[in-house]
Amino acid sequence: MHRREFLSLALAAAAKGAAPSIQFPTEVRRRLSVSTYPFRSVIVSPARSRRAAASDSAGQSRLTLAQFADSIVERFNVYGIEPWSAHFEAIEPEYLRGLKSSFDHAGLRVVNIPCDVRVHPCGSTAEQTATQETWQKWIDAALIIGSPSIRVHAPAGQSNDDIACAVDALGTLAAHGASKNIIINLENDNPRSEDPYRVLKIIEKVNSPFLHSLPDFCNSMQIQDDQNYNERALAALFPHALNISHVKDVEIVNGKTLTVDMNRIFTIAKQTGYRGYFSMETEGSTDPYQGTRQLIAAAVKNLS
Hints:
Helix content is about 40%, strand content about 15%. It is built from eleven helices and eleven strands. The chain has helices at about 5-15, 50-55, 65-70, 70-75, 95-105, 125-145, 165-180, 195-205, 225-235, 260-270, 290-304, and strands at about 30-35, 80, 110, 115, 150, 185, 210-215, 245, 250-255, 255-260, 275-280.
């Protein structure tokens, strides 16, 4: 079936009331998650060479994703994990089933998979097909390990107003997500292609219950070093968020440390009725364990 035909059918199904089936916990610490992205110096990444992945510059052994997950509940007293795509050793079903077993044994649920993969959604026809195939493999991976969603990057256009390709590519992906009950999330991340208002335009144009925003507390500070701008952006994003938000108090831009008032952002999230997960994504800390604990403490204080 041609991509546009598949998209049309999926959007027609959405119009009939199809929506993600997901239940969120209400106990505060069960709404919290540890993102593995800040632990890049701790967890093995298969993207690295075998030698580099096996040890860091100090010769200290690194943990596999499963080994890192095993200590999350004990170290942080939270029950969610957000595993970064680069920390997966493979996306074959056998490995994924083993990883799911490890997460279950550790008492963890997966809240989202941030997918940072090389794709060309606005390239040639062959590249567009390959992009969909790659993204869809991560949807299948999410299904196996019990993640309700994946996060992908919005394709850039010729200008901030050029969203045609992004709408086409992400609409097709959201349609596939709908067929598997897997949500697709877009983050206010890349300052050029993922300006929060461009993300919103794409979501509103696709108009699928399986395409949502992933509000990051700090990322929009990369666009304007202005807390008022950042909070307005988050107030616009949170109504379109369903299951995941990134908690962060610091963003480092060109060596400059930019901070936000997390108390005010948690208030925005609550005022918009957001009921999903909050994943800790500490930045700027030399010790990701300490930084993550500090974010968890702030989240517990605000959500209790």
